[in-house]
Each structure stands twice: as structure tokens, then as C-alpha cells.
Amino acid sequence: xxxxxxxxxxxxxxxxxxxxxxxxxxxxxxxxxxxxxxxxxxxxxxxxxxxxxxxxxxxxxxxxxxxxxxxxxxxxxxxxxxxxxxxxxxxxxxxxxxxxxxxxxxxxxxxxxxxxxxxxxxxxxxxxxxxxxxxxxxxxxxxxxxxxxxxxxxxxxxxxxxxxxxxxxxxxxxxxxxxxxxxxxxxxxxxxxxxxxxxxxxxxxx
Length: 206
Fold this sequence. Notes:
Blueprint: H1 16-31, E1 36-42, H2 49-53, H3 56-67, E2 74-83, H4 84-88, E3 95-99, E4 103-105, H5 109-116, H6 123-130, H7 134-140, E5 145-147, H8 158-177, H9 181-194
Parallel strand pairs: 1-2, 2-3, 2-4, 3-5
């Protein structure tokens, strides 16, 4: 079991109330002019009947809309799993960073395996198709920078990882704070709208 990912925390999957609480705190930070930094580590939003009944899709959709409108600089960092709408619900930002060994994907490998093979144990096989890592995401324009990890992964030296991440955050915050708010918001919105847009070369026959 992953440390911190206990049953009491839904194994890192937030309920609708979690997204609404996050938005309330982001609005509070916006009111007082404080930059917003979100750390993303979730396989996805909680998929239970209760969460659906309390409108989890609506809670995530509202976050997506409202996070494009926050006036203060915003940075999102994928530090582990970045799965599905659960990650996107706190992932709209001026800059999106990702740790070297993290992933950011439309669905978790386990979720993909459960749908395609009806067997979550096929997660390793599904990783090849859905778990996009740093370099892939950078090429697609879905993240702005890859943050290096110590040899063997961030868990081997959390102190060094935190220090390295702090340096990246400070640099990006300084750059964002130098921009006009209108320019920052325009670029943030344009980045979010560009997600999933793919350009294909026309074939000779066409």
C-alpha cells in the first residue's frame, strides 16, 4: 500500500466535496493576492455511486472554468499519478510541471485495464498506451517543464526532491509575476483550450 493512500483518504481519489473545498481555498488565495500552487497525485476522482449522486462531474467542470479566471499566478505540479478528470480538476494553471517519473493521462492504467481487458492486473500492459510521461507530454505541449528526480526516484531522497522543486517553483513564480494579469489570463485560457488539439500532415494523395 502506498504511504498516505489509505482507505480513509479514498486512496488519493477525491469526492465532489474535495474539489469544492479546493476551489473555495483557491478563491480565498485569489482574494488576498496569493499565488496558487497545486500538487497533483491521484489516479482519478472517486468513482463511487455516492460521488456521482453528489455531482462529481459538475464539481470538476466548475473547477476547470473557475481556475481559468483566477487573477493570481497559478502553478500545478504532477508529483506522482495524474489520472483523468480527477487530476484536471486542480490542474488548470499558468504553468504545469511534472516530476521526471510521474505521469499525466486521460485515465489511470488500472482503469484502462479494467475497461479493455476486464482485469485490473493488466495495468502494466495498458501503461504503454495511456500513461504519458514527461517527454511525451512536453512534446505535446501539455506540460511546461520536467523536474528531475534523484537517482531511483523522488521517494529515495524527498529532501533533495523538495529542494529542487522549490527552485523550479520560485523561478516560474518570478516569471509569472512579471507578466500583466490580462496577458497571463489570456495565455492560460489559450493553453487550456489547446489540450487535445492534434495537427496531422496531409498525405500526398489528399
